[in-house]
């Protein structure tokens, strides 16, 4: 046994064996993704170490302004990532900021107001991270799917326009579809939670030595919170996106399918 | 403007187009005019045919009339009023469009046919919760396009190409438009179905005061359906006049080439007044 102490740097080094295994498999199967995989691992390590130190500092300082700055930074990165996915959509960045930011503010605000979580940095930062991350995925999937459907269903959309439909009326169908599609993973993981997989927050608490029943209660809160957050994100995207698929004269824009 | 407006003695044209231009790539090095300074007018009840080889800008011209694309220059007048001043949804209600493909919505025939009226909520059904009224309205529209009442409840996935196109015609008629734009409505159909649509259009033209702008590359069809028409090549009007006369006895070389099926789009040298000296005498 090399790694005597859990999650020490020694155990981290030992875990490189797992990366080595993945690299070996990729090399043997000529997948040609070794470089990318290796780079991703290094990046993950550096980013996580950095954020670890940052969170450490913030927890010690325990000043609200640092918490706000941290959440704002997470939002910024998430919005930029999501906007890159939804690039053909004009104003994608603003849309992502409003959708992800709006859902984070409302969900986090409710949790604080209802006293579900205390207001310390120790709670707000990880919770905000989960909300922002999931909202980002939903915003991206919704927007990408919308752009694609708007292209695929162009004849029907233009036929509806030609009959006098408003942009919102003639995209009601594709919006419904893209919102549902984006929410399916969250709903499915909610349904199968505890059976198919043990979710991250709970796993983390158990690994850190907490009482499993307490961990479960936290996880239930997280699940409910994520449902609210992704619903909000998808709703905001679906409210704002139609305006961007069309010109002010209610003509369907030609967007190349990026993503 | 190179072409005089053709206005009937005392009638204001139902739809008139003045210097209409649609340009793409305006912010690039090589802007291209898809529709270039096109003018024509159609009297109420008229059937105006836009002819031209494929790629000549016919469909884009038609889409400008319904403002599905925004013209770069020029005007469209509807009953003498600048169409760009109308709320775009009102314009599209008054100027209907039938496309090359039926582009039906998911659902059944009734849902498609009543789409327009339902948008504006002007159906008895919504107020009274009366499905019968909707059925009656849809059946009436289907009758106009020669389809039996039983079609109302048919899913659109069960329709043949010709039936689907008739449903899309009924869907456009449901809005009671003043002008109907037809973008090669028979191009995707077999000859029999095509003939049915053509007969329907002739009958509609005879029975109603609907005004048609009909895009086709099919000469025989243009001769049978249109009363006036123009020939569009590379976005520009090269000839226009009453049908079938202007096709039967072409005054211009370009028109003659088109009638003989020897005109390709992009053949800019065939345009009168174009740069090369060997242009038509």
Account of the 3D structure:
The complex is a heterodimer of chains A (259) and B (281). Chain A is mostly helical. Chain A has 2 domains: 1-61, no CATH class; 63-245, no CATH class. Chain A is built from 9 helices and no strands. In chain A, α1 packs antiparallel against α2 (34-61) and α3 (64-85) packs parallel to α5 (121-152). Chain B folds into 2 domains: 15-104 and 178-270, Rossmann fold (3-Layer(aba) Sandwich), CATH 3.40.50.300; 107-158, no CATH class. Chain B is 33% helix and 22% strand. In chain B, α7 (161-173) packs parallel to α8 (191-207). The longest helix of chain B is centred in the C-terminal third of the chain and has 17 residues, at 191-207. The two termini of chain B are 22 Å apart. The interface between A and B is medium-sized, with 18 and 26 residues.
Layout of helices and strands, plus pairs?
The complex is a heterodimer of chains A (259) and B (281).
Chain A: H1 9-28, H2 34-61, H3 64-85, H4 92-113, H5 121-152, H6 154-162, H7 167-192, H8 200-207, H9 212-245
Chain B: E1 15-24, E2 32-42, E3 47-51, H1 58-65, E4 73-78, E5 81-82, H2 88-94, E6 95-98, H3 109-113, H4 115-119, H5 124-128, H6 131-144, H7 161-173, E7 179-183, H8 191-207, E8 211-216, H9 219-225, E9 228-233, E10 236-242, H10 245-248, H11 253-259
Parallel strand pairs in B: 3-8, 3-9, 6-7, 7-8
Antiparallel strand pairs in B: 1-2, 1-4, 4-5, 9-10
Primary descriptors:
heterodimer; A: 259 residues; mainly alpha; 9 helices; globular; B: 281 residues; alpha/beta; Rossmann fold; 2 domains; six-stranded mixed β-sheet; 11 helices; 10 strands; disordered N terminus; disordered C terminus
């Amino acid at each position: 046994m090399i790694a005597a102490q859990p999650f020490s740097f020694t155990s981290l080094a030992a875990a490189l064996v797992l990366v080595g295994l993945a690299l070996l498999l990729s090399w043997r199967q000529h997948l040609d993704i070794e470089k990318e995989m290796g780079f991703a691992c290094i990046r993950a390590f550096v980013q996580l170490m950095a954020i670890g130190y940052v969170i450490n500092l913030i927890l010690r300082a325990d000043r609200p302004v640092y918490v706000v700055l941290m959440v704002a930074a997470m939002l910024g990165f998430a919005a930029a990532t999501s906007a890159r996915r939804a690039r053909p959509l004009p104003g994608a960045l603003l849309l992502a900021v409003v959708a992800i930011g709006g859902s984070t503010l409302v969900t986090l605000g409710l949790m604080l107001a209802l006293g579900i979580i205390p207001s310390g940095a120790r709670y707000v930062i990880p919770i905000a991270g989960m909300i922002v991350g999931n909202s980002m995925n939903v915003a991206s999937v919704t927007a990408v799917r919308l752009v694609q459907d708007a292209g695929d269903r162009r004849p029907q959309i233009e036929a509806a326009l030609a009959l006098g439909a408003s942009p919102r009326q003639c995209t009601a169908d594709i919006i419904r579809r893209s919102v549902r599609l984006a929410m399916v993973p969250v709903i499915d993981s909610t349904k199968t939670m505890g059976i198919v997989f043990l979710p991250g927050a709970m796993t983390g608490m158990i690994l850190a030595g907490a009482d499993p029943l307490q961990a479960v209660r936290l996880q239930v809160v997280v699940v409910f919170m994520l449902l609210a957050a992704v619903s909000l994100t998808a709703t905001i995207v679906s409210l704002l996106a139609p305006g961007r698929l069309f010109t002010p004269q209610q003509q369907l824009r030609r967007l190349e399918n990026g993503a | 403007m190179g072409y005089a407006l053709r206005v009937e003695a005392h009638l204001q044209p139902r739809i008139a187009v003045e210097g209409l231009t649609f340009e793409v790539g305006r912010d690039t090095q090589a802007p291209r005019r898809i529709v270039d300074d096109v003018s024509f007018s159609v009297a109420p009840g008229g059937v105006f045919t836009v002819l031209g080889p494929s790629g000549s800008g016919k469909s884009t011209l038609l889409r400008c009339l319904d403002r599905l694309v925004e013209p770069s220059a020029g005007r469209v007048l509807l009953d003498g009023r600048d169409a760009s001043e109308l709320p775009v949804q009102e314009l599209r209600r008054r100027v209907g469009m039938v496309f090359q493909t039926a582009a039906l919505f998911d659902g059944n025939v009734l849902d498609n046919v009543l789409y327009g009226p339902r948008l504006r909520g002007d159906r008895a059904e919504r107020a009274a919760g009366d499905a019968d009224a909707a059925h009656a309205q849809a059946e009436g529209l289907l009758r106009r396009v020669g389809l039996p009442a039983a079609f109302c409840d048919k899913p659109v996935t069960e329709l043949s190409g010709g039936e689907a196109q008739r449903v899309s015609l009924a869907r456009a008629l449901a809005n009671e438009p003043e002008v109907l734009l037809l973008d090669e409505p028979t191009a995707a159909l077999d000859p029999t179905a095509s003939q049915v649509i053509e007969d329907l259009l002739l009958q509609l033209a005879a029975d109603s005061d609907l005004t048609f702008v009909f895009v086709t590359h099919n000469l025989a069809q243009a001769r049978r359906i249109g009363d006036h028409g123009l020939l569009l090549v590379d976005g520009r009007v090269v000839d226009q006049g009453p049908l079938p006369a202007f096709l039967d006895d072409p005054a211009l070389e370009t028109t003659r080439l088109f009638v003989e099926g020897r005109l390709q789009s992009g053949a800019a040298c065939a345009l009168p007044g174009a740069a090369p000296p060997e242009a038509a005498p």
